[in-house]
């Protein structure tokens, strides 16, 4: 080691090493990150506001669950077709189309406030979500080298969560500001609707950096309609191990995570500004967790980070769900978010490294299907449970399923090690 470097305190050495990885990001990756900055803030506002918006229109928690189920169910059904479409039109075209569909869906939700419109636009949102989900991981793999890959995945999601914290904070106050400007209640459908409208405009602006991405077309030989099924037939064991723990996690997450803003309002009687601030700090905690994940993965191993962080999050989830004290719930909410989610990009990288380059779009489609499967059905079940019995059964279900998924990750990949497949270097 260079003597000058060795004399630098360890935290600064880590920061310097982290910075060197960030500086190595490719131009396409940097443009994608600009999109992430805008989208993160926009979705921070939208995700905080939408549930309250739907409730202000006269719908209850069961309808909320059905709306979330609609978008996730469509994303589930669309995953394989969107994987094929992503290969046909290229990564750039897929990212742009996803952004266009997302902005249209949010704008339409704000402008047409009927139940039919909300369901229809959640269909569009589900397609956008699916297309983005199957495109992102292959795009980042193709625009990174091995040395900065984990950092790019984590930095992108960390940046997104950090900006989501800004959006959540703004979302907590935006209805109040709009209400004051228009002389209506901050909890009215007008205030919430205009907040959603602003989110839609921001989503449209987020498309602009994507226009400048330089992306080659996928070779025709890689566009076979039945390629996903062929790859799955050749690698059933590996795909089952890669996908099944994520499926179990998604079923658990869908039971409670979409309703956290409602949980803090109903159980802890907190107003919108407090919930917005809570979500802002939560997103920031998640962002910090995502940013520190790559050095941990370098030191301890990717799957070790996945298992340990997700296992440690479970006790905090128990406290979050069953403590009657607000500050305990808030503190455990932050810690659980950071621990549970910091492993997400690490595992995405792990998955992409363990499949052949030709199969990455397929596997991205399958993992997207696995994640959306739980969110397609769990929110409807959870919404019904909340109306009938409150939040306790949903929390118990989530805790149980998270425990099972952690045991699967440990059994499949920690105890039984698998070797990554070398990837070709990314083109500048």
Evaluate the radius of gyration: 21 Å
Please, what is the average pLDDT? 81
Number of strands: 0
Fraction in helix: over 70%
Brief summary of the model shown:
With 428 residues, the protein is an all-alpha fold. 81% of the residues lie in helices and 0% in strands.
Write the layout of secondary structure elements.
Layout: H1 3-6, H2 10-23, H3 27-56, H4 61-111, H5 115-142, H6 146-182, H7 189-205, H8 227-234, H9 236-256, H10 260-266, H11 272-300, H12 302-322, H13 326-341, H14 344-353, H15 360-389, H16 392-415
Helix pairs in contact: 3-4, 3-6, 3-7, 4-5, 4-7, 4-15, 5-15, 6-7, 6-11, 6-14, 8-15, 9-15, 9-16, 11-12, 11-13, 12-13, 12-14, 12-16
Report on this model:
There is one protein chain. This protein has a single domain (3-415), classed as Growth Hormone, Chain: A (Up-down Bundle), CATH 1.20.1250.20. It contains 16 helices and no strands. The chain has 428 residues and is an all-alpha fold. The longest helix is centred in the N-terminal third of the chain and has 51 residues, at 61-111. It has helices spanning 3-6, 10-23, 27-56, 61-111, 115-142, 146-182, 189-205, 227-234, 236-256, 260-266, 272-300, 302-322, 326-341, 344-353, 360-389, 392-415.
Features:
428 residues, 0% strand, mainly alpha, Growth Hormone, Chain: A, 16 helices, single chain
């Amino acid at each position: 080691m260079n003597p000058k470097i060795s004399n630098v305190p360890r935290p600064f050495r880590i920061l310097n090493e982290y910075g060197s990885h960030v500086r190595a990001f490719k131009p396409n990756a940097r443009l994608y990150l600009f999109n992430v900055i805008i989208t993160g803030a926009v979705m921070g506002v939208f995700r905080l506001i939408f549930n309250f918006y739907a409730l202000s229109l006269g719908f209850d928690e069961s309808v909320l669950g059905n709306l979330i189920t609609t978008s996730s169910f469509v994303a589930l059904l669309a995953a394989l077709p969107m994987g094929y479409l992503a290969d046909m039109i290229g990564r750039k075209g897929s990212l742009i189309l996803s952004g266009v569909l997302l902005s249209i869906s949010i704008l339409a939700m704000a402008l047409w406030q009927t139940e039919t419109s909300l369901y229809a636009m959640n269909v569009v949102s589900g397609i956008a979500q699916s297309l983005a989900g199957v495109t992102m991981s292959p795009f980042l793999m193709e625009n990174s080298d091995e040395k900065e890959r984990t950092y790019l995945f984590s930095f992108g999601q960390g940046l997104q969560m950090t900006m989501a914290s800004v959006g959540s904070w703004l979302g907590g106050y935006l209805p109040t500001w709009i209400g004051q400007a228009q002389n209506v209640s901050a909890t009215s459908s007008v205030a919430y609707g205009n907040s959603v409208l602003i989110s839609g405009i921001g989503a449209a602006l987020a498309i602009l950096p994507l226009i400048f991405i330089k992306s080659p077309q996928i070779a025709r030989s890689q566009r076979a309609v039945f390629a996903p099924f062929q790859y799955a037939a050749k690698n059933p064991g590996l795909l089952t191990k890669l996908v099944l723990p994520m499926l179990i996690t998604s079923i658990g997450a869908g039971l409670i995570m979409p309703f956290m803003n409602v949980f803090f309002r109903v159980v802890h009687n907190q107003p919108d500004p407090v919930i917005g601030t809570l979500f802002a700090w939560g997103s920031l905690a998640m962002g910090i967790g995502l940013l520190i994940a790559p050095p941990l993965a370098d030191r301890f191993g990717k799957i070790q980070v996945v298992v340990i962080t997700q296992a440690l999050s479970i006790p905090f989830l128990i406290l979050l769900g069953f403590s009657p004290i607000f500050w305990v719930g808030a503190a455990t909410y932050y810690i659980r978010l950071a621990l549970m989610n910091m492993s997400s990009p690490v595992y995405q990288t792990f998955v992409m490294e363990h499949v052949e380059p030709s199969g990455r779009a397929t596997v991205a489609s399958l993992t997207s299907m696995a994640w959306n499967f739980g969110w397609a059905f769990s929110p409807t079940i959870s919404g019904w449970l909340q109306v009938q019995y409150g939040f306790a059964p949903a929390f118990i279900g989530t805790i149980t399923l998270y425990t099972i998924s952690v045991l699967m990750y440990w059994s499949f990949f920690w105890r039984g090690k698998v070797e990554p497949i070398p990837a070709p270097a990314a083109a500048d």
